[in-house]
Amino acid sequence: MSSTPYIHRVHYYETDKMGITHHSNYIRWMEEARVDYLKRINFPLTRLEEMGLLCPVLDVDCSYKKVTRFDEEIKIYVRLAEFGPVRFTIAYRMINAATGEVVCTGSSRHCILDRDYHPVRLKRDYTEFYEMMMGQVSESFL
Question: Domain segments of the chain: what residues?
Answer without folding.
Answer: 2-134
